[in-house]
Amino acid sequence: MNPNAKITDEQFEAYLKQIRELAEGPFEEIQKEVEVTNTFPEEFYELAKKNDLYRFYLPSEYGGWDLDELEILRVQEEFSRGPGGMRMHLHHAADMNWRILDDYGTDEVKAELMDKFQDKTVYCNFAITEQTGGTGADLHTTAIKNADGNYVLNGEKWLISHTDCSDYTYVIAVTNPDDDKDTRLSGFLVPNNAPGFEIVPMPHMMGCRGAGHAGLKFTNLVLEPKYLLGKEGQGMEIAIHSLSVSRVHIAMSNLGMAQRMLEISLKRANDRITFGKPIASRQMIKAKIADMQKMIHVLRCAIYDFARDFNKDPHNEYVTEKAAICKLFSIDTVKLVSDEMLEIFGGDGYFEDCPYGPTERLYRDCRAMWLEEGAPCVQRITIARECQNHGGKIEYTFD
Ligand SMILES: Cc1cc2nc3c(=O)[nH]c(=O)nc-3n(C[C@H](O)[C@H](O)[C@H](O)COP(=O)(O)OP(=O)(O)OC[C@H]3O[C@@H](n4cnc5c(N)ncnc54)[C@H](O)[C@@H]3O)c2cc1C
């Protein structure tokens, strides 16, 4: 355990257990209704608060426990075993929600808001994706300075999570339209109650229900300069750095889901008797189990390696590359593990209310991971770019 942490080893291990029981117990119960309504009831937020799920990841100066990155990720693994939409909400809470403001906010806004994350008095979503263009220099939402020195925001965002429970939105927009590179872009913290801020409803998703997805529309929304994040032109850099860490949280989400899928598959394979023997004794089933465990183990090692480097230096040379590797490999992992789970369960796995666990919901929920925070192509582009820059060999330090 990190020696600076505000809780002991024993308290931390007990907390992990508490979060697993919450995710697989009360959260699963609540989710049955959320699958239909697509909205979290107040009871979910209250349980999350009561179980410190808006607090555990924060530095103590903001009311948190001073956990290190690996410890934060280990909590994420536990709640990721539960419903995907809740996982999405809590994953975002633990990461970009507060980290972007902490890393890039002005002193004035940080003094106003940083101690309000611990009990969800403040929650910030993140909006980069647009319907009208590609993510990067091709964004079209603009934030142009007016004569008073304020920025005026116009444009749209699409596929944005947590729009129904957020107070602010981190928006990446064009401030320097004459530039043809990513330096066209800047980041802003936008109060959702500002005049000109509008939420555009979207249809229900395949899985991860309840996480408040919608489009956003900005019409002549006026922003004071204190809401600029970092410097003008730094928008893409802010997005890339923030998404790097968050991509590892996605990888850990996949690990949590894959671990649960493997465990319930083992139970089912032991219980299911065909032709007088448990299917777990058949070599074809053993091969599936071995392949599932192989992927899960390697993914865990990659995430733990990332977290160790990140704890030493959050801006180390390999953050972006290793984060993209973790995310990409985690998609391969959850793809293989969910497919094998379904085969091991046979027809029963395709139905709701499977007594071993929510097989059909896990299968749907995990597919959001293909897209969340960058499709596999984008991860490959990132890995290849970094790899070509440093000549191909990652240097490892073992201590
Ligand atoms: C559940 C969910 C939650 C999300 N939450 C958020 C959120 O909170 N905030 C937010 O900003 N966005 C969010 N998104 C959007 C998500 O980040 C994007 O869907 C994802 O990055 C892919 O972008 P796109 O949908 O615009 O696909 P497109 O850009 O249309 O891409 C389609 C395919 O083409 C490939 N492609 C596109 N351009 C290139 C290129 N230049 N070179 C090679 N291949 C390319 C892509 O990799 C992809 O495979 C969310 C999406 C989902 C599904």
Model description:
Helices cover 48% and strands 13% of the residues. With 399 residues, it is of the alpha+beta class. It folds into 3 domains: 9-116, Acyl-CoA dehydrogenase/oxidase, N-terminal domain (Butyryl-Coa Dehydrogenase, subunit A, domain 1, Orthogonal Bundle), CATH 1.10.540; 124-233, Butyryl-CoA Dehydrogenase, subunit A, domain 2, CATH 2.40.110; 236-390, Up-down Bundle (Butyryl-CoA Dehydrogenase, subunit A, domain 3), CATH 1.20.140.10. Strands 1-4-5-8 form a 4-stranded mixed β-sheet. The protein has a 4-stranded antiparallel β-sheet with strand order 2-3-7-6, with no helix packed on it. A two-stranded antiparallel sheet has the order 9-10. Helix 4 (69-79) crosses helix 8 (235-271) and helix 8 (235-271) packs antiparallel against helix 9. It is globular and about 80 Å long. The two termini are 16 Å apart. The mean pLDDT is 95. Bound molecules: flavin-adenine dinucleotide. Flavin-adenine dinucleotide binds at residues 125-129, 134-135, 159-161, 205, 208, 368, 371-375, 377-378.
Quick tags:
Butyryl-CoA Dehydrogenase, subunit A, domain 3, 48% helix, Butyryl-Coa Dehydrogenase, subunit A, domain 1, alpha+beta, 399 residues, Butyryl-CoA Dehydrogenase, subunit A, domain 2, binds flavin-adenine dinucleotide, 4-stranded antiparallel beta sheet, globular, 4-stranded mixed beta sheet
Which secondary structure elements does this structure contain, and how are they paired or packed?
Elements: H1 9-24, H2 26-37, H3 42-50, H4 69-79, H5 84-94, H6 96-104, H7 107-113, E1 124-127, E2 142-145, E3 151-160, E4 168-174, E5 185-191, E6 197-201, E7 214-223, E8 228-229, H8 235-271, E9 273-274, E10 277-278, H9 283-312, H10 319-345, H11 359-365, H12 376-390
Parallel strand pairs: 1-4
Antiparallel strand pairs: 2-3, 3-7, 4-5, 5-8, 6-7, 9-10
Helix pairs in contact: 1-2, 1-4, 4-8, 6-8, 8-9, 8-10, 9-10, 10-11, 10-12
This protein binds flavin-adenine dinucleotide (FAD).
